[in-house]
Amino acid sequence: MDPSLPCPNCGHSITEENFQKYSNPFSMTCPHCDAKFKETKVTPWLLVLAILVTPVFIFIGVTLQTYIAGFWPFIEKIPTAFVFLAFAYPIYAVYEKFNARIVVSKGALQLK
Description:
alpha+beta; 4 helices; 5 strands; 53% helix; elongated
């Protein structure tokens, strides 16, 4: 069975997949009762990790863009964020899955 946290309002399970679908940690709602909640135990540390990982993602994006521009010169005119998403999205997906797993295993939910 998937690891999950109970919703503080209705008690239904909120799984890792649900946490992966949230666009940011400040807009979380229960998929069953639509109650807005916040995660108070882990989210601050994940935000610090995101701040530390962002320069790494930028470096990877610029490196990929420079490398690919050797084959396709038009890539230099495309914003680095698009190049990163197009060619390094699996790295970002692993990062999001890691965040969801940490929140579900160590998190604490409270209603807003």
